[in-house]
Amino acid sequence: AEVALPARLALVLEGIGAEDARRLMRDIFTHSARVLTNVRRIRLELEQEGAGRSVPALLREVSAESRLLLTLVETAELRVERVTDAQRDTFDSVAFAMGHEMRRVFAGELTRNAAGGRPRATAGLVIRACGLVENCLQQSVITLAQEFDPAVTGVDIFEDYRERRESSLALRAELGALAESVEAGAREQSLLANVSVLRHVRRFRYEHMHLLMYRDWEEFERFADALEQNYESVEAFARLLHAFSCYLTTLHGQVSLRSVLKDG
Q1: Which of 256, 231, 242 is nearest to 182 (CA)?
Q2: What is the model's pTM?
Q3: Using 50, 70 and 90 to split pLDDT, how confident is the model at 196?
Q4: In the 8-state DSSP scheme, what is residue 5?
Q5: How far is the C-alpha of 257 from the C-alpha of 157, rounded, in Å?
Q6: For helices 85-106 and 123-148, what crossing angle results, to 10°?
Q7: How crowded is the C-beta side of 181, counted as CA atoms within 13 Å?
Q8: What DSSP character marks residue 76?
């Protein structure tokens, strides 16, 4: 099925003078748009109670389309007569990154579900895998588009990019505030301080935890549950706070590296 390209990408294509390069980039952008459309359909299916019957077929389509897309990027030099050194480097770096992420995804949860698994039983894993695909393809499209038009940004191309960027900024700020609260509690080591930290952890858990990657939810909840169970013991709580502080530092670093925070 035909997928309409974002208006800003259509402008990028218009600005590419060589017909073979323009045709290749149109194919790359179109296949990317198809994959991203199906990824969104999968997410919507899994969010609807009792739905999900079409997910295995959509996953198979995402897998096939992604492999075709990767082939287009990997063989770009064979499809375009004149390629600059900068363009060659860009195609190579995008192909490497895309291949790495696609192997992560299709060697794992998407392959198992595409083979006929129960999508509702592993909805969280599938949603996480779809998020990896979406992030990888959006960043790949942005990088390739910028090679032909440096003024392009993610916000110009993808409707949800600004929202994802703002969510990531908010998450980074909340993680920083939680880490400060944990450090203050570790310094004070009193029952009153423990209760204050616990309140902050609860607020983050119920208001902001959903902004983390799905894979991080379980570990965060383990820490939160352990803190709930041990807050009356100053000594046990202090030991937990040290481990939790290290964990939050790692999380904050991971969020700071999100591609949406590197592109205005």
Answers
A1: 242
A2: 0.69
A3: very high
A4: P
A5: 21
A6: 180
A7: 20
A8: H
